[in-house]
Amino acid sequence: xxxxxxxxxxxxxxxxxxxxxxxxxxxxxxxxxxxxxxxxxxxxxxxxxxxxxxxxxxxxxxxxxxxxxxxxxxxxxxxxxxxxxxxxxxxxxxxxxxxxxxxxxxxxxxxxxxxxxxxxxxxxxxx
Length: 127
Prior knowledge:
Radius of gyration: 21 Å
Distance between the termini: 58 Å
Mean pLDDT: 90
Order of helices and strands: HHHHH
Low-confidence stretches: none
Oligomer: single chain
Structural class: mainly alpha
Shape: elongated
Largest sheet: none
């Protein structure tokens, strides 16, 4: 099989082909979604239970090592999934290369900052 066999005639004429990054992106988004299938129901049930117990019970709940680790994992999976989704939106709907690059950088920094705030907050309560 030759390299040009997978190109449409228009792409072959322009010399464009696959970027070869779509499959990895798709798999990462699906893996984070599968993690969220398990983590989000746990999170919702646990937070409702902790909030109904009052402030001190909620603090005790977050202080539990298992709960604090699962909270950080939930935040990591959700933020990573959000970052991947926003990346697709930016790539698909922003035409100017400079604007697209700036928004991609902002997307990454915003997600990193959001995760840092959540992780530090949970760790501060847990320790």
